[in-house]
Design brief:
seven-stranded mixed sheet; two-stranded antiparallel sheet; 10 helices; binds S-adenosylmethionine
Length: 309
């Protein structure tokens, strides 16, 4: 906690307590229609002071310097316009790692951690089975956004001692998102493990992959307007799944025969109400292929496993 005369404080200005600033922020966010005013205010005060939210909660009597209080009030006003807390803090935790986030890409969601878990399990299973001629396992993350999936996977594989046996490509059609993904890869020291490519869905060079991972946009276009206000700050390209929500994923399915090796697997994140629709779509676009839907911790359909067998 920054003391009244600590760094960032305005000397000579009477300081305010964390408790009073929290109450003020919660009140302002309640009026603005925030669904989580208390949590938001705690996170933003922690951000302004430079400590964890739990420290704020433990010390309601602590004084806050004038500069930090000013920064906090400015952040509360940003939040009151609906801007997500993650963009204001510039930070989001995902898979136990801190990711830099901003308006160039979607804020990674907790449900996407399922995709990383499944990818990690699949990589390790394939490595245990052995690779012909010790060939590298080729992985592509389609629609990498902030790089959350691919960076979390690369960090996990490094921890498991498997970093040297995979070749990872992070792909997005947004140059801004790719820049952010690269920054996150550098931040987690895996930039040398990942190649970054700007393309529509897949590289055009005929590359084939053992694993295709994708969290592509899957929100139905007519449902976009009903999403929480915070999502209007995120790129539409990251959310808009077309009229039925499965337009972009459907275009990726069309390209899987040319992109997956014979025993390759695609792991595709879907919406919690799209389990039956994805099975029907795979049957239609890829006759003879299999599609199994894996649930998330809440029991909702979350990831489709698509392969030739
Ligand atoms: C739902 S966001 C997911 C971002 C990140 N993978 C995550 O899980 O947080 C979808 C991403 O797909 C990208 N995208 C949308 N259409 C695409 C396309 N046709 N080709 C490549 N990327 C696309 C968007 O730019 C966005 O970054």
């Amino acid at each position: 906690m920054a003391p009244a005369d600590g760094p960032g404080s305005g000397r000579g200005t009477p300081s305010e307590t964390t408790g009073a600033l929290l109450r003020e922020g919660v009140q302002r966010l309640l009026e603005s229609g925030s669904e989580t005013p208390r949590l938001d205010a705690e996170l933003l005060l922690g951000h302004a002071v430079g400590v964890e939210r739990t420290v704020i909660l433990a010390h309601p009597e602590a004084s806050v310097g004038a500069d930090a209080a000013r920064g906090y009030r400015a952040d509360i006003e940003r939040r009151a316009t609906g801007e997500p807390v993650a963009y204001i803090r510039g930070l989001k935790e995902f898979y136990g790692l801190a990711f830099q986030v901003d308006r160039r890409a979607l804020i990674p969601r907790p449900e996407t951690e399922r995709l990383v878990e499944l990818a990690e399990t699949e990589v390790m299973r394939r490595l245990r089975l052995g690779r012909a001629g010790d060939a590298l396992l080729r992985i592509v993350d389609v629609g990498t956004g902030s790089g959350a999936v691919v960076v979390a996977l690369a960090v996990s594989l490094r921890r498991l001692g498997a970093a040297d046996v995979v070749e990872i490509l992070a792909l997005d059609s947004s140059a801004g998102a790719l820049d952010l993904a690269r920054e996150n890869a550098v931040g987690h020291a895996v930039a040398d493990r990942i190649a970054f490519v700007e393309a529509d869905l897949l590289p055009d060079d005929g590359s084939r992959f053992d694993l295709v991972l994708a969290n592509l946009p899957y929100v139905r276009r007519d449902a976009l307007a009903g999403l929480p206000r915070a999502t209007t700050f995120e790129p539409a390209l990251a959310l808009d799944g077309g009229p039925d929500g499965l337009e972009v994923i459907g275009r990726l399915l069309d390209r899987l025969p040319g992109a997956l090796v014979d025993d390759g697997l695609a792991l595709l994140e879907i919406g919690g109400d799209q389990g039956e629709a994805i099975v029907a779509l795979v049957a239609d676009r890829l006759p003879g292929w299999s599609c199994a839907v894996v649930a998330d911790l809440a029991g909702l359909p979350r990831v489709a496993r698509v392969s030739r067998d």
